[in-house]
Queue: 3 jobs
Job 1
Amino acid sequence: MGFKEYVGKRTLHGVVTIFLAVTLNFILFRIMPGDPTRAVSGDPRVDTATRLALIAKFGLDRPLFEQYFIYLYNLLRGELGISFVQIGRPVIDIILGRKMVNTIILMGSSMFIAFILGITAGVYAAWRRGTKTDISFIITSLATYSMPVFWFGMLLLLVFSYYINVFPIAGTITPGLVHPNFIEYAKDYLHHLMAPMITLGVSFFGGYFLFMRDTILDVFTEDYMLTARAKGLTNRMILFKHAMRNALLPMVSLMGVHVTFLISGATMTETVFSWDGLGRLIYDSVRNNDYPVLQGIFLFMAVLVVVANIVADIVNAYLDPRIKEAADR
Amino acid sequence: MKAIPYSDEVLYDNLDLEHDYEVYEMSGGYDPYPSHMTPRFHSSEIMDYGSNDWAYDNPEVDALLDQANRELDFETRTEILWEIQDIIAEDFPYIPLFTSDDVHAIRKEWTGYVCMPGGIFNWYNRLTTINLQHEDMEYGADFIMAYPSYIRYYNPIMGTDGRSALVVSMVYDDLVAYDEDMNLTPWLATDWTVSTDGLTITFNLVEDAMWHDDVPLTAEDVKFTIDFYKGQDVPYDVPLMSRIDSVETDGDYTVIVHMAEPYAWAVNDFEDVPIMPKHIWEGKDWDWPVHPDAMPIGSGPFKWDSYLDGEWIKLVANEDFWMEGKPHLGTYTVRVISESSARYLAISTGEVHSERYELDTGFIEAAAADPNLAPLEDTWCVGMWDYYIAFNQRFDPALQDPVVKKAIAHAIDKDRLVEIARLGYGTVTETYIPPQFFGPAYENPDATTYEYNVFLANQMLDAAGYLDIDADGIREMPAPGEEEEEEVVAPETIEELQEAIEDLSTSLSETRGQMTLLESEVEALGGRLNSSLNIAYGLAAVALIVALVAVYYAMKS
């Protein structure tokens, strides 16, 4: 099998996976207890007649199979539907808007910071293995890794938004403020970003640090490290040129898996800091049984995972002949 | 009996469709007038998704409800409602417990807000909207309110959820409003007359009302609004709109509504119909999202200024508002702060000035001690959410037996429930139209009520034949057809005395049982606050995990 066939096969797998995810999303949210029209009629002023009309309007009185095929048909036309909760608003507008940008910025920045700090600290701690520095790094990272992120977020909020009032308490931008230019807007946005970014950065740091430290320690046992030492290279050269470069490969794979976080967001953190992103949208939509929005978000997530994995596999196959050979067999 | 805390979703599914629960405890919710009586007790609402979810079916009550809905005279109508309540208090589909009251955290520099049943920041509390002001600034102050989530709708018809409705009530006007004692007062309509047969209602409108885009508001807009409501495929405000036959205008400022049948609450219901601008809504449908096509244009005391979808809305005072000298505020900003503790912190630092809903019970102590907040006594209003214990009337013979339900009613210490579940910020309700909420006119001095008396409860059950035959602490159903005749005989022999003592101790353990039941109910109440949140988080997590695992395995294959 040649390279082209390999790519074709992986793509076909991906399409099947997405189809499975679509089906699962459809079933999952409908077996969940609750009724989307409750969200509308939670208010005592809404009459039973109104509610029955809405149920008919949404097609929720039809058999599940029929609903499923209507959903698939609409999906093939590129139609994600209309939100049940914000009646009249297309799902695509709700998902592919400011909320997605907010989430990508928050998750991207905090993952980037955690990644850089985690790698640096991981290499350093592995090098100084068994020393007090190493142990204190491990304890710190285990603590931040296992700490509930919403609790840490609340602490930050209490300290930096209440006792010493340096960060705003909620939102992505100051309400009602008209910014004179983009720089001012960006400054205001960054000011709001700080606290949730620190919270998530700290929570991600532990994982990256521990992963990097372990990988480096593995690499240290390789023969080429002995060779490097025997060649009389400096510590710095051995550490950053040989050890870190090799240890980065599994780290990059890990980042590939984490790409979904960019979209799924961090529901807890977004809720604590009232960061208007997709994580909070998922939470609100689950609470209100907003099936179309949930299906839309989870479809995006599935597509993202599948595409990211296919790209990674193809790139790997291109770079690493061993994988291609394995596929040929 | 075992009390199980359920998430709202699971419970609602049972009430809406499955109908196989036995007893539940929940809150219903009141309108400013007793509109809940017909849906809750009329047999026509016994159906899937119906409001009469306990399946209470009494033709006599049905007839009286129909009669009350047609009776135009307040006194006569109230007497019919009293009669209905007496019958229901005898049949007892549910036991009213208490209302969860609104107690607000408001920064103390704000004045002019009005406490009315339902809360200071409720959608029908238009007095707060126009009178709220800063103590040092009669006009032009900037008020910021925290919302737990963004409004659902920009569209005034669908904006019936509490969050959207408050914003809608500030931007749009209705024909009538309520004062702090729940009496109807003029709003866009300066006055109105109802013909003696109840078939014609004439509203006279204020003459200087303008839409926010400087178009004059006339009777045509009111006629358009009613016709619009009647013409949609998804009906809103059904009880009113289905009884309206036609609408005509007489000049620019008089609207004449022709009713198909007399309807006692017609004018009340108009409080819930935001008058919409014909020049904007003509040709649109009920689900026109408004956003992002246009900012909502109303005629109310505040104009839509700017917003960021999902985060905040800024309203500015309408300087051309038809009511002289109102509103006092300069701007009214609604800001989303998702987390309740973050909202409280924001109020403490002054970053926001109050929040839409009542204080979480967890912050009541801190709020009472905070010198920067208005005293809680001043912000405490009777709540619109009425809690009750409901009995499914469909199958269980014990729950169809009034004696059992009355005994349970006697065994509930409502004051203690309020103390534990609401830290005292609740109002005990004894009747189905509690005068504490609906106003003193609904107070029936002869209403049937059930005082807290466990001894009496036990006696009633004994007398009705619900005896604990196998002494396991649970009473058994009486044998069918067996009429119980209790004869009280003074114990004469030692054996009889022993028997009497045993009876007494059974009765005492019964009392203990009732107490445990009560405690578990209180726990369930507290649990309900968290469980819906937890379950939602849990479900989201499970959904995510399952989806990821499925994707992973699919990839592997």
Note: Chain B is about 35% helix and 15% strand.
Job 2
Amino acid sequence: MRTGPYDWRRMVLEVRSTELGLALDLTGEWRALSFAQIDAALAAVDLGGAGHIEITTERLAALDLTGAWRLRQFVLHARQMGAQVAFAGTPPDQLRLVEEVLSPLESAKAAPQAVHGGGPAGPLEAEVVTLAFIGRRTVTLWEDMIGALAFVGRLTATAAHLLPHPRGLRPISIARHVYDTGITAIPIVALIAFLISVIIAYMSAQQLRSFGAEIFVVDLVTIGVLRELGVLLTAIIVAGRSGSAFAAEIGSMKLNEEVDALQATGVDPVEALVLPRVLGLFISLPLLTVIADLIGLIGGAVLCAALLHMPLDQYVNRVSQAISPTTFWVGIIKAPVFAVLIAMAGTHRGMQVRGSSRELGRLTTMAVVQAIFLVILADALFAVLFMEIGV
Amino acid sequence: MISPVLEVRGLVNRFGTQVVHDGLDMEVHEDEVFGIVGGSGTGKSVLLRSVLGLQRPQAGTIRIEGHDITQLAGDALRAVKARYGVTFQQGALYSSLSLLQNVQLPMVEYLPVLSPSARDELAMLKIRLVGLPADAARKYPAELSGGMIKRAALARALALDPRLLFLDEPTSGLDPIGAAEFDELMLYLQKQLRLTVVMITHDLDSIFRTCNRVGVIVDHRMETDTLERIVDHPNPWIQAYFHGERASIHLGVTHGT
């Protein structure tokens, strides 16, 4: 390969002692990528009371800004040590450029320090910092709650405004969200429901066998899945899948100024982005719950057959005895409520994204955590409510 | 004769049945400002992505400072990538990092010997060099204006003092005054730092102000010539481009000199 000026050549620093002090001769390429060598070579120069330092740069093959900056550091250091530094011939242009850019900054930095002169750090400081932290968090939390309330209000108003005109509800968009949040979730929801009923059946069979009450395994599976676990686990899976998807979709649209574009076109983003998602999940989560319930019962049947050698007709018979007319509805009634909570947590956090990709990640995480928290909280409230009204 | 800084030979890029480049040749020499021009969809960005090693071409060689990047991988490719700087059309600043951290990122990657304070100072040097105020250093990309983002991207591209600089549509989205200022800044830095600049652009003002030579992508290949001569190229697209109404004010100038 030929040696053009673009080929990499070593940086070389020759140091000679003269009558007056030192003479430095710089050759080769002094560039950023060989900073390690440059730094080591200049740091190794023994200033040892040298009165006069002469630097020759005219034979340099290349000097870039990083190299020039390091050379300047060396010159400043040498001057501080009391040496006189001079360049043989004119100093390199790059050094002048670095000087021009950095010296105003340094004098600006030096000035305020002299004025301030380090006041005493008060003994209260740590407590003040803690108090300020608590205060700031409280205000943020308060603002967050107000913001969430405002969001709920805005969504309700938009929905109330649009419900008399079903065409304005964007049925195509809703259908897409029913597909994305519902139909594509069927395999995972079915699998989880099956496994959960297997776990309940297996555990209860072990316990009940010692009482000879194996038949109640069916009651436990049926009531457990229909009333509680079918809907709760489906909601938690959907919160993870779709709550995060809502937040990430809307959040990246915010970053991309798509939400602004919608608004500028006169389209209300709540109407176009939030409401279809809420309604889509409102439709799909109850349907998913029905599937989860069904698969859960099938799982119970499979395990009862395998573990307890219970024939299918006996299982079906026992299931119809175990459930009351309300059992199924007590479970399914929670699904739309969970759906709205999940969708609102996801879309609200998505709409809050601004500025950076890091915000997107933070708010997507927050959306999922909050959706799951709200689902479990609502489930607890439902449990209390159902006990009070005796269903 | 010095070997070219960037040399593309016989580049072929195809996506399925769609041919983007078919035997494209390009040479960029030291210290020149080379403009890449072409209609929408002619593969300017694909060319840039190939040259940057972001996508492998179906055939052809791409030599950067003599190293064929189509044959390199791993650390060897990484070493070549340290030798050029790139600015992307939208800036592509890392949105979760401040401007100072954006400029420092290449230094952290390639020059671990730099102390944090040295990195601060060198990054600030680059930020001031592209004409941004010192207090912009602590800001995040979302807080910067469009013109500042272009400059910030340039500062990041210069972090390791490369000699080869790729600019993708550096003046797009800027007002004419801002665009002209960016051109002047780029020319100033090009002279001061002896940069070789490869620039994709649509901006005729920018081409006539800054470019020494221009490569036009037509019919999946590149027609390259000096600015003075390329305007007389017989290809109809080139004629339309350089002799359209928007170009007319410039032609008097170049022909006169």
Note: Chain B has a mean pLDDT of 85.
Job 3
Amino acid sequence: MASLKSRRINPDKFHKSQLKFYAILIPVSAFMVLPILFIIFHAFKPIDELFAYPPRFFTTRPTLDNFKRLFTATTESNVPVSRYLFNSIVSTLFTVLFTLWVTASAGYVLSKKNFKGKDTLFTINTLALMFVPVAVSIPRFLVIVKLGLIDNFFAHILPLLAMPVGLFLVKQFIDQIPDSLIEAAKIDGASDYYILMKIIIPLIKPALSTVAILAFQTSWNSIESSAMFINDESLKTFAFYMNTLVSTTGNTVAGQGMAAAASLIMFLPNLILFIILQSRVMDTMMYSGLK
Amino acid sequence: MKVKQKFINRNSHWVLLSPYIILFCLFILIPVISAVVLSFTYFNAVQSPKFIGLKNYISLLTQDTVFMQKVLPNTIKYALIVGPGGYILSFIFAWMLAQIPKIPRTIIAILIYLPSMTSGVMMSTIWSIIFSGNQLGYLNSFLIEIGMITEPIQWLQSPEYLMTIVIIVALWSSMGVGFLAMLAGVLNVNEELYDAAYIDGVSNRFQEIIYVTIPSMKPQMLFGAVMAIVNTFTTSGLGVALSGSNPTPQYAAQLIVNHIEDYGFIRYEMGYAAAASVVLLVIVWIASRFSWSLFGEKD
């Protein structure tokens, strides 16, 4: 029985038999993380190190030159980089907040309320899990035109709010909350809005954190809206600016330094958010099963 | 006032659901339906769409040599390697992570998840520097250093390498939400099941995975599969981003997504592009059905 215990899933402490897993997992995680470390070092390299041959992974004299050049650079239409960054922050913030609100209320209804058509709606949403937005970029563009949202800041936000994966995860998570809790509140005369705000939302923080991360990633990294729905340069986002920067200056070495600095600015918020919320994300994933 | 209040409370489920339903219809349902409708029309974004029946599909399948000889085979090759490949790797890594203690597990899981947080732009920035075509490129300088090559190779402009690079980068970024779901799934398998299985004659780790782990986490396996499919097709535009041109050199890494953009936003043949979109949606749907038949609960 002793040998069986040491083979347990989720062991408490290190055991010799785990070495073989480390022998694979450590090289794999190195392969995953090296390109990212590389871009971090690259962002802090002074110009002569960017030119150095043979190229070196580490930087010996880190500087902020690339960031300075990135922020003093302006596009042809004289829009400063800080403006793109501001647009990204505002649109991402609103996307995350609205997604949470829309998803939490729909998730509560689909999980705890009984009404005709509920199962159909959830089935449609489950089918939509396999929705690939890039496949229908043209009709999405036409919808935006019909709604008159071209050159409107909301074109960054509205298309991202209905997130089938988010609704799915939140609904599954709410399923775990006992009905008796809601019944008790109902007897006390609480309305659905009150139950949602005061009982459900505090209990589903892990699922909401997960949705927040997913919404954040989608919105912060999105170039679709800036490339297709917005013509006004001063309303476009940082991800889009970075895209043009890479395609116009990407081949020059100085451009690579700037692109690396911009990549780092793009990546860090994602990373920090995920590290802070990762244990909540794992809690949510326990209920992610699709039946 | 009171009547209104009563109405809002009695129909609270519709009030709460409506924002999601409206947004879902506008940006998911209507686009999918209009893709199907537009695929039967000639539409150049200036004049209103003209119904032409199955003509787009017929020319897509019979006259578009680029589509049949390059785009479709490329898409199938890419999807078969990145989809199941990335999925199986995610499961293997998730399973191995479950065999080690919590703190190293959390650290390694974060490291493996990191690439999936990078956006398309950032991916192309990172990898185009690594695969840069002059001797300053990291891979070129490394290969020259160890004497494998004498002249730098134009990795991202060479038809023979571009597809492989796209596949490597896509696999690199494929350990996303599905990977995390499967990790949670492996960790939550009831441990008594393993003990029971050993009594029933399971004798090694491989049998344990086949007879205990996978059957008891089927729902997570299915969720992971659907996420893998979506991720595979979402990142499939990478070839254009890496090579910097649409079409990619000699259509080497031209996938359906790029073909749609090429016809839709470069040539403005939107009806034709919509037909290609429908083909893509059908491929996604078939792949999902297949995953469902593997892991879904039979009714």
Note: Chain A has one domain: 69-285.
